[in-house]
Write a structure and sequence with these properties.
The protein is of the alpha/beta class. The protein is built from eight helices and twelve strands. The longest helix has 22 residues, at about 210-230.
Length: about 350
């Protein structure tokens, strides 16, 4: 076929307004021998007062259409973005709760209703998946997989802060009748404050007598035995018994000073979830965990690139931002960058 003449439309037409504002001028000119134009007739009326008072650029139809599309965005699926700004370093736990659908049951006191779900889910920060161009709330579900969490990172990476955030989030979303904490604080002492929490049975420090650690582990052993025996009679239900959380800050210190007790932790890792016993453990390196293995892990900043390969099991991109609580969230083999929130509640 031969060529076809066409005229492309011009998108930036003036926005349609009142009829009084749209009087189009029709003019007749006389062209002299010297080429000058002389106005002979004009049909344009005097510009309306509203036009004279208008300030700023006149909005055109294209701008108006884009504005309407922006307003309607909430009712449609928007195009997938190709880039998101990196997660900010300082995120408060209060902000995370504002974005999460997980409700707090503590607002000055605990007020869980009868239909309050007994799920062990704790909002703790945000996830960032550059490949999927997706950022969303980070929620730890202790009812998934093996029911435990391992936090590993070098000094200053934010391990204790992460523990504080997890404990605080669990305490805000569950009553003392639903969960209990038992804390072995072998770090710098940031977890000592949780001894005042009504959910906490005991906080054991490295300076405490070994007898206190003996009593705690004997209690957990006997509770596991009792719950295991009752499981068959209650069809696997935990009934009204609280979920038990054993928090160990600096597991390497426990293995060094109390090796026999540390070996006993393997029973909790293996069989704990079935009877409502969950572990939250921190180490500086993989070797410090010994024979223990966890499906869920938070890998914070590490000193060497090779350490990531040892922990993740495959080559990964290290987080570009070096901040407390910035790391990788590994759940069932999936690796996503994360930022743990500061344990701040207003």
């Amino acid at each position: 076929s031969g060529p076809v003449e066409f005229q492309a439309a011009y998108a930036r037409l003036p926005r349609v307004g009142k009829e009084a504002d749209l009087q189009e001028a029709f003019k007749i000119f006389k062209v002299g021998m010297d080429g000058r134009w002389q106005l002979m007739h004009s049909s344009a009326a005097k510009a309306p007062t509203s036009a004279k008072k208008r300030k700023g650029p006149l909005q055109n139809e294209q701008d108006n259409l884009i504005t309407m599309m922006k307003i309607a965005e909430k009712n449609v699926q928007p195009a997938r973005p190709i880039y998101l700004d990196p997660l900010v370093e300082n995120i408060s736990l209060e902000y995370v709760f504002g974005e999460s659908v997980v409700p707090k049951v503590f607002t000055g006191t605990w007020h869980a209703s009868e239909d309050h779900p007994r799920s062990l889910v704790a909002p703790v920060g945000f996830l960032d998946s550059p490949e999927e161009c997706l950022q969303q709330e980070m929620e730890i579900d202790f009812g998934a997989l093996d029911g435990h969490i391992w936090i590993v990172g070098s000094a200053g990476s934010g391990k204790s802060m992460t523990l504080e955030t997890i404990i605080t989030s669990l305490a805000l979303t569950h009553t003392p009748e639903e969960i209990n904490f038992f804390i072995l604080e072998y770090g710098a002492g940031q977890l000592l404050k949780f001894n005042k929490l009504p959910h906490t049975g005991v906080v054991v420090r490295s300076t405490d007598p070994e007898e206190l650690l003996d009593k705690l582990l004997k209690y957990l052993d006997s509770e596991m035995d009792r719950r295991t025996e009752l499981r068959g009679h209650e069809e696997g239900s935990q009934g009204n018994r609280p979920a038990l959380f054993l928090v160990i800050n600096n597991f390497a210190e426990m293995r060094t000073n109390y090796p026999d007790h540390a070996d006993g932790i393997s029973r909790y890792a293996r069989d704990g979830k079935a009877v409502g016993l969950h572990l939250i453990v921190t180490t500086n390196r993989r070797i410090e965990l010994g024979r223990l293995s966890f499906a869920n892990r938070i890998v914070l900043q590490l000193a060497n690139r090779d350490d990531y390969m040892d922990l993740v099991g495959k080559s990964v991109v290290r987080p570009a931002v070096r901040a407390e609580g910035r790391g990788l969230w590994i759940m069932d083999g999936k690796v996503v960058e994360c930022q743990i929130a500061l344990p701040k509640i207003t």
